Amino acid sequence: MRMPRIGITCYPDQGGSGVVATELGLHLARHGCEVHFITSSLPFRLRAYGDNIFFHKVEMPEYPVFKNSPYTLSLATAMQDVALKCKLDILHVHYAIPHAAAAFLAREMMKPRDLKIITTLHGTDITLVGKEPSFFPMTQFLIKASDAVTAVSNFLKSETERVFGVGENIKVIPNFVDPRIFKPAVDKELKESLAPDQEKIILHASNFREVKNLPAVINVFEKVCQTHKARLVLVGDGPEAKAVQARVQEIGLRPLVSFLGQVDQLEKVLPVADFLLLPSLHESFGLVALEAMACSVVPVITNVGGASEFINDGLNGFLRAPDDVQGMAQVITRLIDDENGRQMIAEEARRDAVMDFGASCVMRQYLELYETII
Ligand code: GMT
Description:
Layout: E1 5-9, H1 16-30, E2 34-39, E3 53-57, H2 71-85, E4 90-94, H3 96-110, E5 116-121, H4 124-127, H5 136-145, E6 148-151, H6 154-164, E7 171-172, H7 188-194, E8 200-205, H8 214-227, E9 230-235, H9 241-250, E10 257-261, H10 266-269, E11 275-278, H11 287-294, E12 298-302, E13 318-320, H12 325-336, H13 339-357, H14 359-373
Parallel strand pairs: 1-2, 1-4, 2-3, 4-5, 5-6, 6-7, 8-9, 8-11, 9-10, 11-12, 12-13
Bound molecules: ligand GMT.
The site of ligand GMT has 20 residues, from helix 1.
């Protein structure tokens, strides 16, 4: 059978959905699929152009009539153009709004030629954006109009069914990690520069939005510092970054906190950490926790959402309520005092991440879906 030709659209900047879409494309290309990224800029995790990978930039013309350039329409036109010229079988869009809408238009324009749409729901496209009254009916419509829909966790599938009343056919395909890229390879120089007194490193990486619950990150770190030596490393950037900087200054912890901003090669930084702290208000999956586990870093993550689908509390990481600052600080301080115990959990974390959520095993599920759809 001929391998499928797939168009992939995602948000190209930092963010879990873009990471999943890009890594998926890279793996599919290695499996022999022809992969066409149709995005507004080069996806940041597109480390290398290999065979079978193509990038099509969505052009957005400036015109005085437009106060805001209609990106969705430019995207739909680009999708149709690429689908026609490159004979695409499938448009696989990541994040429903507005990508599934553009794909729907492209499919209409292609008729009577066949073009399938797969929409992958990642989280906030359902739990936050999709719920907005101005997007609700559109999100509901697009879920029904797609030829197949996937969600990154059972939690997200249930939420979609509960909120939108659609989705019994949603297939759950979880996030995945490439264990050859995310591995426990510690850059000693970097570790020493971040923790010069060999303090334990607590790392938080996110897009610094409200949902990431950054006040809890600071509060947990403050509590840990009351009794133990530790350092906090913050990776990423976003709307909450300034408030976080102000807060650590205010409580006198600035010298113990490193702000790294956006990091393109997270795999270089993650392994230096001892703990990954992600106390989000909700997290449909929590990809960065899985990537941390693959690097043998102990995850301490919110219990609201899909994290319990890959974290076994106390065995390969810890699940706590987003407001349980005391509980999160407690597991961290306990393991700072028990390095052997921390290492056992870290090793278990890597084993489980690689065995159950390794890229090749999850890739198979996407390939099967493509075959069924075509
Ligand atoms: O909030 C983020 O981290 C970004 C967001 C995105 O769409 O880029 O992440 C969502 O998708 C990731 C990949 O599937 C999931 O691992 C994250 O849990 C999810 N974020 C939330 O649910 C808050």
